[in-house]
Amino acid sequence: MDIFMETKMSNKSYSPFKRAAGLASAIALGMAIYSPSYALNKVRVGSTVSPDADAVALCLAIDNGAFTKAGLDVQLQTFAQSNLKYDADKSGEQDIDINMGAINAAQLYSSGVPVVVLRAGTPADLWAVIARKDSKFTKPSDFRGQKYGVVSLSGVNYGATYLAFETDGVNLAKDVKVSTLPPSALVPALVKGEIAGATTFEPFLTAALKTGSVKVLFRPGAVYEQKYHHPLIALTIATNKNYLKNHREDVKKFMRVVEATRSTLAQHSAEAAVALVHHMPEAKMNVAAAKKLIDEYLPNAIKSENTPKFVGGVQQLYDQLLEAKQLKSPVKASDFWIDWTRL
Question: What is the pTM of this model?
Fold first, then answer.
């Protein structure tokens, strides 16, 4: 069903989803008619398909005209698999990554890509380890010697799994038979018995659970936090050092819009759900499902800016990744994590 439903006038009240859809249609129509008298500055933004707070705020700000009012023409490209997005980051095909993995940022920076992290966005609560409904596994050590599916061999999907398994004495690279599969292939592989478990993330997690064939065993982020007593930072907003140097004002405008939009998402989650479904059809969500995810995960979004204390916590994560051989060389978080509010 088309998310932009026709709304008829009557004395009856409408659900927030219908009101949100009607509002989005009106905004889209208004945006089509309105043509600013000044040139908009183009900003190419990449996003993994995800209901994280910053990606949701981005979608809503595109649809409600907030970026246009700020003088920005935000051009969004979405990716179901984050490794393809990071290829675009490496090649300079995008200016801002709205949900770059904190682990990926370190990996890219250590390989010579001039990444600049503007703020942290989301902890690793969007990720989960799943298995078939009849699985007897309950903890990482149960997967020793078993076949296991991940979306990528780098980044948050793999890194969060690696660190969580390590808390239970399991080396994911050596003790588990890991293979890469796209999110859509994980459930079929589990059902067929081709793998014993997998790490997936929202919105694909919700879709997987709806099949009735799989269940959540545990959350890597929760396992990590229980062990180390601080959250596993998963997603960030990042840019390229060269882009920041040449377009500092555009970066500041972009961040102001995202911050302002994110701060009111709780009050506008219905409209935000419409925008998310509109811009991320790969998620195959309806508006009600999107709103449920937004409402569920928004409270956990990271609120702190990149203060020295916060970046010190990031350094602890990177030191752990180096020890786990997930980073090829040491990285200093303070070299590329900045406080964008001080630009």
Answer: 0.84
